[in-house]
Design a protein that fits this description.
There is one protein chain. Helix content is 33%, strand content 29%. The protein has 212 residues and is α+β, with helices and mostly antiparallel strands. It has one domain. Helix 1 runs parallel beside helix 3. The protein is globular and about 50 Å long.
Length: 212
C-alpha cells in the first residue's frame, strides 16, 4: 500500500487533511505523535487537497472550507456561565515547529503540499484559541507561538498557560509546577459538542489548579 505524500489529522472534528498525487489506496490519516482516526477510499488523478471527505483542486479552496467549518463552530459556542477568571496565555506551535514535529512528508513532497499542511495545522491551533476566548472562561487570553518546549515559555503575569505540543493540549498554573493534560472526548460528535466538552474540561482543570 502506498501512503499519501502528506497527511495530518485534526482530532477535534475528525477531519482528514491530506495532499494526494496520482495514487489509489485505502488508508488512514497519520500525524506525528497521534493516532489513526479514520480510513477512507481515495482516488486522485490530479494533485488534490482534502478537508474531511471533500476534495479541492487548490490549497486556497481547501483552507477556505476549513475556515468556514471552524467559523460555524465558533459562532455556536456559548459563553461559560461560571467563568474561572484570571488571565490565560495560549502557546501554539510556530510554522517552523509544525513543519519539524507535526507533519509527515517525504523527501519528494512538493513544497506547496507542505505549506498547505502547515497552514491547516496552524489554523487548528488558532481555532482552539478562538474557542477558548469565545467561551469566556478567563477574563482575558493572549496567544503566542513557540518553537518547541512550550513549558519554558515565560508566562509573564498570566495566571494560566494553555499550550499545544506534539503530545496534545495542556494547562498549568502560574504558581504550581503541575501540568495537566486536556483530553478530547471522542465519544462526542465532532464539531460544537466536542469543542464545548473540551472547553468544559479546560474550565474544570483551571478551577482545580486554583483550588490546589
Amino acid at each position: 500500500m502506498k501512503k499519501p505524500a502528506l497527511a495530518i489529522s485534526l482530532c477535534l472534528l475528525l477531519l482528514t487533511i491530506s495532499c494526494t498525487r496520482a495514487w489509489e489506496s485505502k488508508h488512514g490519516a497519520f500525524s506525528h505523535g497521534s493516532e489513526v482516526f479514520q480510513g477512507q477510499k481515495v482516488k486522485s488523478v490530479f494533485k488534490s487537497y482534502t478537508i474531511g471527505n471533500e476534495e479541492f483542486r487548490s490549497a486556497s479552496e481547501a483552507l477556505q472550507r476549513q475556515t468556514n467549518l471552524f467559523s460555524n463552530i465558533i459562532k455556536d459556542i456559548k459563553p461559560n456561565q461560571n467563568p474561572v477568571g484570571g488571565t490565560a496565555l495560549i502557546a501554539i506551535p510556530s510554522d517552523v515547529e509544525i513543519k519539524n514535529s507535526y507533519i509527515n512528508y517525504g523527501i519528494n513532497t512538493p513544497q506547496k503540499h507542505i505549506d498547505f499542511a502547515i497552514a491547516a495545522s496552524g489554523n487548528n491551533s488558532l481555532f482552539i484559541a478562538d474557542a477558548i476566548a469565545k467561551r469566556h472562561i478567563f477574563d482575558s487570553v493572549s496567544v503566542v507561538k513557540h518553537n518547541g518546549n512550550p513549558t519554558s515559555y515565560p508566562m509573564g503575569n498570566s495566571d494560566f498557560m494553555i499550550f499545544n505540543d506534539v503530545d496534545g493540549w495542556f494547562i498549568k498554573g502560574k504558581s504550581k509546577p503541575l501540568i495537566i493534560p486536556l483530553m478530547f472526548d471522542k465519544n462526542k460528535p465532532g464539531g460544537v459538542q466536542r469543542t464545548e466538552a473540551f472547553l468544559d474540561e479546560l474550565s474544570k482543570q483551571a478551577q482545580n489548579l486554583l483550588n490546589k
